[in-house]
Amino acid sequence: MKWLISVSSLLLSLCVYSQEITIGKISNKIVHGDLIGNRNLEFGIKSILEELVQDQGYDLVENSESILEVDLLYFDVKRTSTNAAVFTKTNNQVEIIAEGRFNGKKVKVKATADNIITSTIILNNQGTFNQQSVSTALKRLCNQIIDKLKL
If one looks up domain 20-149 in CATH, what number appears? Predict the structure, then answer.
C-alpha cells in the first residue's frame, strides 16, 4: 500500500508543472511630457505585470525562455471642461499607450482612466493627474497586454 502511494505521488508530481516566465525589460520610450525617462513608471508596471502573470498561474524565474517585455510609448492627460455660470465639470483622462512582446508576438495597447471633478468654483489644475487615475490606467494597460498576448 505504501509503495502504491509513493509511486502515485511521484507520477503526479512529474505530471503537474507550471509554466515559467521572466518579466524582461520595461522601457520608458515616452518622448513628450513630464514622465520622460521616469524609472518609477517602469518599476510600477513591472510590479503589476509580476502580480498579474502569477495570478495566471505562471512561475516567475530569472532566466526563462518565455520573456515578457513592454515599451511605454505615450502618457498624457487629456482635459475637457464644461462651464455653466459658476458650475464647473472637469474631466481629466489619463491615457497610456504601450507595446508588449512575448515569444515573438507583439501587441500595441491603449488604456485610459477618468478623473471627473465637479465644483461650483472655477478651478484650474492645468490638466494634472492624480495617483489613483494613473494606477487605474496602468493596471488596465497591463491587463490588456496580458489578454492580447494570451498568456
Answer: 3.30.160
